[in-house]
Design brief:
single chain, 499 residues, alpha/beta, Aldehyde Dehydrogenase, Chain A, domain 1, Aldehyde Dehydrogenase, Chain A, domain 2, seven-stranded mixed sheet, five-stranded parallel sheet, 13 helices, globular
Amino acid sequence: MHSGKTNFIGGKWVQAQDGQTFESLNPARTAEVIGRYARSWQADVEAAVTAAAAAYPAWRRIPAPVRGATLFRMGQLLEREKERLARQMVEEMGKVLVEARGDVQEAIDMAYYIAAFGRMPNGSVVPSERAEMFCSAQRMPVGVVGLITPWNFPIAIPSWKMFPALLAGNTVVLKPAEDTPGLAVSFVELLVEAGVPSGVVNLVTGFGAEAGAALVESAGVSTISFTGSTETGRLIAGRCGQLMKRVSCELGGKNAIVVMDDANIELAIKGALWSAFGTAGQRCTAASRLIVHRDVKRRFRDELVDRASALRMGAGIDPKAQIGPVINRKQLERIHRYVGIGVAEGAKTLTGGRVLDEGAFGDGCFYAPTVLDDMTLSMRVAQEEIFGPVTGIIEVGSLEEALAAANSTQYGLSLSLYTQNVTSAFRAIQELEAGIVYINLPTSGAEIQLPFGGVKNTGNGHREAGWMAMDYCTEWKSIYVNYAESEELVRAQIDTQVA
């Protein structure tokens, strides 16, 4: 159990300056306290930012291949500790063990992928219109980067944000979600073991309105990267705009799987089950809408309901469990409230729709996998992110109607089409309004070598992972070098005349 000294500032583990702490609970057994963590406020955040700023000049001067080697060692350490971190994740966040291992594996993959960038080109050399002139553009670090990360992927998402920032030569301050501070502590401990110098990585645990807001406001932070709700993202992006800070937001989703009449129904059902109920629906890529052609709706619906009602729920450490608890009681109540809203609007509950609070589930935050039918596009449950194991079926009669339905929300992260018609597939690729499009695949499961992010209100245009991973935390610098021996002034735009 971690207790108190869980901020990492300037290379030292310290408690909050006023000594305040908060508890982290096991969502499968909420009476179980996992640890007590520093409850950070502005003074703690400023201390972390000051330490990061002090470490920045030396860190940015370290050659990029050497910085990359540090990240490579981090990947090795994550491999070594994969099982321990996965089990810690089951306890603190609640996802089942096989998914927790996948969460850690994403960080391993990202460490090795970004480490290789240390020996990749860092810009471009271009020809000049002027003789004896060297022209290039290079990526440059931005300084101190503030990272505000969510609880649903508590190892993977910090790695997506932090590793590119460190490889680029920035220093960072990490503020993890208050529901999973222990995993952030373990993550930073491994970075220290990997050889990250003092002050380069700093950690402040605490709540968003206290520590997170202070990180956004800090004058020493040049860039904020945030993953979380669209509502909070709007506030952060707006404030960063006022402060003229760079900001990257990866926000909500209302993702859909489209099942056409020529689809492989067995494959589509498996994809829907995984997308809707994996991680108890607590993914920004979760499929909370199933847009199904009327000619195959009955078969798809009936088989989906049978399998959803048979999913095994339990504490994530149970190898038989397929779905674990949701993160906390507040979220449990929110999910149940949304199901009630859907029923009041005219949707029909086919399975689930209830809190599991008896027997082994009594002390946990468990919600039964829920399938709604007769969902229409105007319903709140068809438009608003629920972030739980709830999905609904929308009936359509054509590809045109299906694509329009898929595009009908304010979000645009992950959309999927099941079809065996190549024309339909490529039309969907062109017309679906999403940052990620899947054909004959579920909406969840992105690979780290491709950009991750969305359009519309899902984000502000930045992408994580892939070859664009360092865009958010670097600035471009154009460089001109005149190496001519002549004393004549040479100007651009082919102007050889000197005034």
